[in-house]
# Entry
Amino acid sequence: MVFARFLLSGLLNTVITYLLYLGFLQICSYRIAYTMAFVLGVFISYGLNAVFVFRSGVAIRSLIRFPVVYIAQYVLGLVIVASLVEFAEIAAWIAPIFAIIVTVPMTFILSRTIFAFKK
# Structure
């Protein structure tokens, strides 16, 4: 049940973050728009995870640790995509799917660990 809430909140966060990106794109460059949407997405994800997924509530301790989850997800995903494209010669458009398959469970475990500190 918790993993289902995690997937649902991830989907919701993705939609909101993408809409923010599109909005920011109207007023600034894509690089700035992407960066601002990504940073806001981290905070949105934190709120959804704290309140909806893990039901632990918002706390400074978990808020400070939470961005580490996104850093780990990004780095591992980038390594997987680059490895698949460069070494396994998998098409660049499909490689991120494999990265998602690996990083989503990892992100769930790391997030659960961060929010478990409060309990």
The mean pLDDT is 92. The radius of gyration is 15 Å. The CA atoms of residues 86 and 115 lie 36 Å apart. The longest helix spans residues 60-86.
